[in-house]
Amino acid sequence: MRTPARITLGSADGSHAPKLHALITASLEEGRLLPRTLSELTSHAERFVVAFKGRRLIGCAELAPLSQGVAEVRSLAVDPGARGAGAGTMLVNELRRRAKREGFERLCAFTHRPAYFIHLGFSIVPHLWLTEKIFTDCVTCPLFRRCNQYAMIVELDEGRDRPAESPFVPAGAPSAPHA
Ligand SMILES: CC(C)(COP(=O)(O)OP(=O)(O)OC[C@H]1O[C@@H](n2cnc3c(N)ncnc32)[C@H](O)[C@@H]1OP(=O)(O)O)[C@@H](O)C(=O)NCCC(=O)NCCS
Fold first, then answer.
1. What is the tens place of the pLDDT at every residue in 86-119?
2. Ligand 1 atom nearest residue 111's Cα
3. Ordered domains of the chain (ranges, CATH)
4. How far does the centroid of ligand 1 lie from the alpha carbon of residue 54, in Å?
5. CB under 8 Å to 177, separation ≥6 — which residues?
6. Residue located nearest, by CA, to atom 18 of ligand 1
7. How much is the pTM?
8. What's the gap in Å between 8 CA and the centre of ligand 1?
């Protein structure tokens, strides 16, 4: 009997952009995700953490800076065939580690699925706590003032809600395949 392939994480680069585009586009409606263009994904690929099952790229999430202190989880998506195995949790936890390492104080997410993020240690806050988001994205959104997304944050203070050991495989290591 075959052992199921292990899920590993890696950093994305431009070569992953078509796969990121396909993954995000396939989950747009379900996740009410922001549509992303291939060129935008190519230029921001290094902000993405990607999950692999064996050699197959099955998930992604972007760490998008909103201000000096606040970063946002964007474009979180896991292939429907690979869900429920912890890849989404691993991706968000890796973004938390990365955000903390890069000196951010808070990680936020805008979602219609608050229960998922609460499960991951985030709390619902008023949108006005995240003026960075309002002045960058919300003001140009057709749903501004009619927003049905929850604003969620997790503080990245030392010792609070520290995610478990990283499954991150540095680029170039043998078990970090490219899709
Ligand atoms: C949300 C998503 C990324 C989760 O990926 P995943 O790899 O299946 O997540 P995990 O396996 O890490 O799930 C972790 C836990 O959350 C739970 N969970 C999953 N979806 C949930 C939801 N909508 N509400 C509450 N809990 C949820 C799982 O049951 C699991 O619980 P457990 O740890 O007690 O077993 C995936 O469903 C997806 O890509 N959805 C479409 C896009 C989307 O909605 N993106 C997020 C928008 S902000």
1. 999 999 999 999 999 999 999 999 999 899 999 9
2. 48
3. 7-155 (3.40.630.30)
4. 20
5. 10, 52, 54, 55
6. 116
7. 0.86
8. 17
